[in-house]
Write a structure and sequence with these properties.
The chain is of the alpha/beta class. The protein is 33% helix and 13% strand. Strands 9-8-7-6-5-4-3-10 form an 8-stranded parallel sheet. A two-stranded antiparallel ribbon has the order 1-2. Helix 3 packs parallel to helix 4. The longest helix has 20 residues. The C terminus is likely disordered.
């Protein structure tokens, strides 16, 4: 039988490792020298889109097919579209929809269809502020004014909605002149109101790019108060006369419920109460030189 044997020395005495002695000479690396040549172009800070006016395109006189800019031609300044508030104050009859689905596609379709405004309904619609924003984007793309109806008339909801930059805001369940004055105060910065200020970073001011926002927001924002109860109709002239209230929006469903006709909103007595409300607001409108408006809007999904 064959056997394998190992020399005893190879098992008992392992070889010693050999390390070279360290050198006493220090290694000095030369300091790196960097030189930057001046770039062939000048760096320029980009201007916000709102501050630029696009130059008109002109065909080049050369045989090239490229399109060149002709800077010698004066650039026309685009005329901003009139606000929803100014159009209503001028007596125009405008048509709009309530959007409860929070669908940006439906909002875009409404704008493309030619409606003058769309109410994004956060009171009875299922969405909140983050759901309303894409709808405002879609409406802005079609140059259609957006109105946000709040779920509750309070400063917190008003602040969050106004920061999105709608052209109008609607306060539900305004039953007295006192509540109407509070609603207006929620839309004004101090000292005229109690609205929280973040105008340098929110969409309403184009994220701080619109330098004229603080000077113009009061004149451009449409403030709407909803009258939705029998008691509120009795005070509707005083509600409409509150300084800052631009439009009274009736709530026929809640009005009928407050009158005991929840299951019969088309009851004759409800219709008569609606006529009383209309006369009250129109009478206030004449006394205040047309600054109080009556809104009659229809629902859509």
């Amino acid at each position: 039988m064959a056997t394998v044997t190992f020399p005893p020395s190879s098992l008992s005495t392992p070889p010693k490792p050999h390390f070279p002695k360290p050198s006493k000479t220090l290694i000095h690396l030369p300091s790196p020298k960097f030189s930057f040549s001046k770039p062939a172009f000048n760096l320029k800070t980009l201007n916000p889109i709102l501050s630029q006016s696009p130059a008109p395109l002109r065909l080049s006189n050369t045989t090239s097919d490229l399109i060149a800019y002709d800077n010698s031609v004066p650039v026309p300044v685009p005329v901003p579209s009139r606000s929803l508030k100014s159009r209503l104050h001028d007596g125009e009859t405008l048509y709009g929809l309530f959007l409860l689905s929070f669908s940006p596609t439906l909002a875009e379709i409404a704008g493309l269809a030619g409606y003058d405004f769309v109410v994004v309904d956060m009171e009875h619609g299922h969405g909140g502020v983050s759901d309303a924003l894409p709808c405002l984007h879609a409406l802005a793309a079609t140059r259609t004014p957006a109105i946000i109806r709040l779920p509750e008339s309070c400063p917190t909801w008003a602040k969050k909605a106004l920061d999105l930059g709608p052209q109008g805001i609607m306060f539900p369940m305004i039953d007295s002149p006192k509540l109407a004055r509070k609603a207006v105060s929620y839309c004004r910065f101090p000292p005229a109101g109690v609205r929280g200020s973040a105008h340098t970073v929110v969409r309403a001011s184009s994220y701080g790019i619109d330098a004229g926002y603080l000077s113009n927001y009061e004149e451009e924002l449409l403030i709407m108060c909803q009258v939705e109860s029998e008691e509120a109709v009795k005070k509707i002239e005083d509600i409409a006369a509150v300084d800052g209230v631009d439009c009274i929006q009736m709530g026929p469903m809640d009005l009928s419920a407050s009158m005991g006709y929840l299951w019969d909103p088309g009851n004759k007595k409800v219709r008569e109460m609606m006529k009383v409300a209309e006369k009250g607001v129109l009478g206030t409108k004449k006394k205040t030189q047309g600054r109080r408006l009556l809104g009659w809007l229809r629902y859509a999904t």
